[in-house]
Amino acid sequence: MSKQHQLEELLQQMTLDEKIGQLIQLATPFFKGAGNDGQITGPMEEMGISEETVRNSGSVLGAAGANQTIHIQKTHLEENRLHIPLLFMADVVHGYKTIFPVPLAVGCSWNLELAERSAEIAAKEAAVSGIHVTFAPMVDLVRDPRWGRVMESTGEDPYLNSQFSRALVRGFQGSNLKNDTLSVAACVKHFAGYGAAEGGRDYNTVNMSERQLRESYLPAYKAALDEGCEMVMTAFNTIDGVPATGNEWLMRELLRSEWGFNGVLISDWGAVKELIPHGIAENEKEAASKALRAGVDIEMMTACYDRYLKELIEEGVVEECILDEAVMRILTLKEKLGLFDNPYRGASERLEKEVIMCEEHRRQARELAEKSCVLLKNNGILPLDKEKRVAVIGPFANSDDILGPWSWLGDRKQAVTLYNGMQKNSAHLTFAQGCEIERVTKEQLKEAIRVAEQADVVVLALGEHSEMSGEAGCRADIQLPLAQLELIKEMQKIKRPIVTVLFNGRPLDLHGVMEESDAILEAWYPGTEGGAAIANLLFGMCTPSGKLTMSFPYSAGQIPVYYNAFNTGRPKDAPDAQERYVSQYLDIPNEPLLPFGFGLSYTTFRYRNGTLSEQKLKKGETISLSVEITNIGEREGDEIVQLYIRDVSGDVVRPLKELKGFKTIHLQPGETKTVSFTISEEQLRYYHRNLQFKSDNGAFIAYVGGNSQQVEGFYFELID
Ligand code: GLC
Predict the structure, then answer these.
(1) pLDDT of amino acid 46
(2) For residue range 636-659, what is the model confidence (pLDDT) as tens digits?
(3) In a domain, 647, yes or no
(4) Which of 226, 321, 390, 630 has the most CB atoms lying inside 10 A of its own CB?
(5) Where are the alpha helices (DSSP H) in 471-628?
(6) Is 713 domain-assigned?
(7) What sign has the CA pseudo-torsion 273, 475, 111, 223?
(8) How many CB atoms lie under 10 A from the CB of residue 580?
(9) What is the rounded distance in angstroms from the CA atom of residue 378 to the CA atom of residue 426?
(10) Is the CB of 202 under 6 A from ligand 1?
């Protein structure tokens, strides 16, 4: 008998309560003897869950550790009448115990291979700890750095986000979930458009056309599903006035019918019950009805399904076949993970000891952190001379708060701080706290000045504590806290070169930092090996290669500012632009302080001899754009070469540039390489007014360069 038939037979045996139980996800504390160390990431509430519901529940949120998960599973299998195994799900976003840089940093590496490896390692450490599903990758496109969760995304570009989405799903899931018990199922989130919350305020309204949603925000979710992602998590926000978690168009018409997704859909934490405050359900019963009919299979951490689904089905308000479909999807996922054959899957205390935080995992975390840092400014002070006396000053100088807000089981005590890392490279280090994240005392400043005066160069380690970022970590003012700006001013008086290292989860307004520093290295939250990676970069053991995947605004007043914007009818930089009546601010520039794709190196790359193979691109054929790149500096380095394309005139307005390709090359000093990009008609397709996804014949410009502003353009025409 086929597995499908076996599952259908099992479904036939299930009572209504047992079916509904599969749709209930509970946090660890609900399970006997599980302890209270389960991860709680949302508003916990008195859910009034019965013992019977626990016995019938289908999955657990936030349990971890082979011992704990084996115990919960064993107890559950004894108590569940049909011995249906639990699914264990948790947020393993950028590492389990070995924490990698936050995804926004990983995005800046433009390194899909290392990203995939990081997900593979995270999956391995999670799987031996008994986790079956991770709530990742988060692929929400972001354009507003006030939003706390931009750190969880890979940035503002649909194409790049889609590439990372695929790489992370491959890393988490491997090639065979059933046989590879050191993989985990991925759950792409948050479906959909969560990053477009108005005002950059978490959980806020999202308002955009279906066309823009399809053009910019949906591609990365679709990429995850095309890569075989097993689960989808609904977003908290509305889409065109309907909350995603109750949005039948989004989940049934688009996700299931149009995209053909038949995996499991889980709500975000409490999002089913939140249909009430959103205002499309009067009570939990209506919320349960709307969410299930819209397509939510598992309700996370509220009890609308538990309390009302039975009644709704017995009253005929919700058809039992809808419930059966949801149960079958959940049972099928359990089957895909091999849980009916082996409910403990990869959980193993022995393997935990062998695998978790092993040296190879730490080395990979260090390498990815080195590639994820972005050199924003350098007047030549970097790389540091190891013989120089270096004062390391600031709230992050020796801080272990460098794992980021979604590091859950990451152990900060295991993190390599900046000071620890630098000690390995220099015997002439001194330290001063300088200030706290948001407070400074005269004594701290006095001590910092004293230490700085005895040094040749000052490394200022500044930033946001991890609670100033992440979920519900939104900031209207995205400058560094005043205490830190005051510290910079005091350090300037000492007349020593200042190297500023930033630890933060978002693009910042760098007023008070950019002018005042001789060099700036953006380190984001660099993870367990962060301090070691940064030290290697500062002392030139490796050369920075990261490039921004999210624009740094000139100030918060510019937000949203992103590279793939439209030209408008009165572009400020048009040749015939008037003085006043153009699209501009009276008080700040239009351009971001630092654009998408920007990042410096310790060497210099010269682009020249760009050529298009043809001026005309015939449908069904391709042309190529080639460019010669020479390392004209004294140090070897990596350069991320970018290809952008502009559709000069379309059925709707088209972005000034769209990333369509990138390649990383390594060049020795004096070395030249030619990089070629293939351009095809498929890359020119977009959503028309009637939502048809196709290209138009006509004029295009292909751009190649080292960032979205420093490019050379080449005209070509698409013809039949
Ligand atoms: C949180 C987050 C979501 C996470 C979930 C479970 O509210 O929005 O990303 O996966 O709860 O922890």
Answers:
(1) 66
(2) 999 999 999 999 999 999 999 999
(3) yes
(4) 390
(5) 482-492, 530-538
(6) yes
(7) positive
(8) 7
(9) 20
(10) no
Q: What is the pLDDT of residues 422-477, one digit of tens each?
A: 999 999 999 999 999 999 999 999 999 999 999 999 999 999 999 999 999 999 99
**DSSP for 85-138?**
PPEEEE--SSBSSSBPPPHHHHHHHT-HHHHHHHHHHHHHHHHTTT--EE---B
> Which pLDDT does position 31 carry in this prediction?
81
3 state SS of 624? strand
Rounded CA separation 489/84 (Å): 63
Look at the block and give the residue holding tokens 């609900």.
30
Does ligand 1 lie within 6 Å of residue 156's CB atom? no
Instruction: Report the C-alpha gap between 357 and 363 in whole angstroms.
Output: 10
Nearest to 244 by CA among 283, 295, 307: 295
Candidates 144, 157, 202, 268; catalytic one: 268
Answer whether residue 394 is part of any domain: no
Select from 140, 191, 267, 269 the residue to mutate for testing ligand 1; criterion: most ligand atoms less than 8 Å from CB: 269
Report the Cα–Cα distance between both ends of the chain, in Å, rounded: 52
Question: From the CB of 149, is ligand 1 less than 6 Å away?
Answer: no
Q: Is the dihedral of CA 216, 218, 221, 222 positive or negative?
A: negative
Active site residue 297: no
Count CB neighbours of 414 within 10 A. 15
Q: What share of the chain is helix, strand, coil (3-state, %, to 5)?
A: 35, 20, 45
**Tens of pLDDT, residues 114-147:** 999 999 999 999 999 999 999 999 999 999 999 9
Domain that residue 705 falls in: 603-719
For residue 629, the domain's CATH number is 2.60.40.10
Phi, psi of 257 (to 5 degrees): -80, -55
Region for residue 155 given its phi and psi (left: phi exceeds 0; alpha: psi -120 to 50; beta: otherwise)? left
pLDDT tens digits for 31-54? 876 765 444 444 444 677 888 999
**What does the block give as tokens for 509?**
């307004």
Q: Which atom of ligand 1 is nearest to the CA of 41?
A: 12
Helix (H, G, I), strand (E, B) or coil at 70: helix
- In angstroms, the Cα distances linking 519 to 62, 377, 433, 467, 602 are 41, 5, 20, 26, 11
Q: Do residues 474 and 467 make contact, with C-beta atoms less than 8 angstroms apart?
A: no
Within a 10 A sphere around the Cβ of 446, how many other Cβ atoms?
A: 12
What is the maximum alpha-carbon separation in the chain? 80
Rounded Cα gap, residues 251 and 239, in angstroms: 11
Whose tokens are 């991890």? That residue is 466
- Name the average pLDDT for the chain: 96
Q: Which of 275, 277, 268 is nearest to 289 (CA)?
A: 275
Whole-angstrom CA distances from 428 to 70, 395, 398, 451 are 50, 20, 16, 12
Given the structure tokens 């999670």, which residue do they identify? 126
CA 115 to centroid of ligand 1, rounded, Å:
21
DSSP state, 252? I
Domain count, the chain: 1
Average pLDDT (559-565) is 98
Within a domain: 319: no
CA 123/CA 169 separation, integer angstroms:
10
